[in-house]
Amino acid sequence: MNLHYQTDGQGETIILIHGLFGSADNLGLLARSLKNQYKVISVDLRNHGRSPHSDTFTYQDMAADVLEVIDQCDIERFSLIGHSMGGKVAMALTELAAPRLNHLIVLDMAPVHYQVHRHENVFAGLQEVAKHTVSSRSEAEHYLARHVQEPGVRQFLLKSFAKTDTGYGWRFNVDGLIANYGTIMGWHDVPPFSGKTLFIKGQNSEYIQTEHRAAIARQFPSAKAHMVANTGHWLHAEKPDIVSRVILNFLQAD
């Protein structure tokens, strides 16, 4: 699985891992704030962006993919920053490469199995677009809007709508994501990772709850937490300067 990735900056290495329906570009604001002091590698996970598609889509698979990129780049030690699903990939990587990790930073995600299906309308919208022969993003948005009401969500999804050799279509593997949605929402506990770990929560987001504290403490006993006020799940896009400052302070606290 040869993932697509992009590299910016120089220095100690930080790996940025996007969430569901995303791509390397989604954490671009973070990359820009970090690249002056660090080497930043932003990956497209399998079934996303310009990376290959696959029927298998476990967190162990995705973590191994990212580690393969790190090894290809001949990097021994690194830090991880993952948002949402990418946060789970980052947490799963602790099982594969704990001795090599400098810092683990998880943006608005807990190491738990989520029970609520949050994306039914998104999948319906993606499938609606796929039913039609579409020749522009505006046309795709017309069909997407039948199921996805929020303009911001539509614009986020349309970043992965592109022209290919066979016409316009989604870069991510819609059928593969639907088939593996239970796995995406799920989680298998990882062995305790006692390295430097920070969980950053959006105050208005429901992804990290009080009842998740035990699971976090069990798997990441040294973890610290920071809440960003008046933000939701997309805290790094809503308040990029604050989130970047929190991350840099944590990275440089040694």
Automatic annotation (TrEMBL):
Keyword Ribonucleoprotein annotated: no
Residue ranges annotated for the AB hydrolase-1 domain, each copy included: 14-244
Pfam family, one: Abhydrolase_6
Sections of the chain in a coiled coil: none
InterPro entries from the UniProt entry: AB_hydrolase_1, AB_hydrolase_fold, Epox_hydrolase-like
Any GO MF annotation of the entry: hydrolase activity
Keyword list, A-Z: Hydrolase
Protein name: Alpha/beta fold hydrolase
UniProt organism field: Photobacterium atrarenae
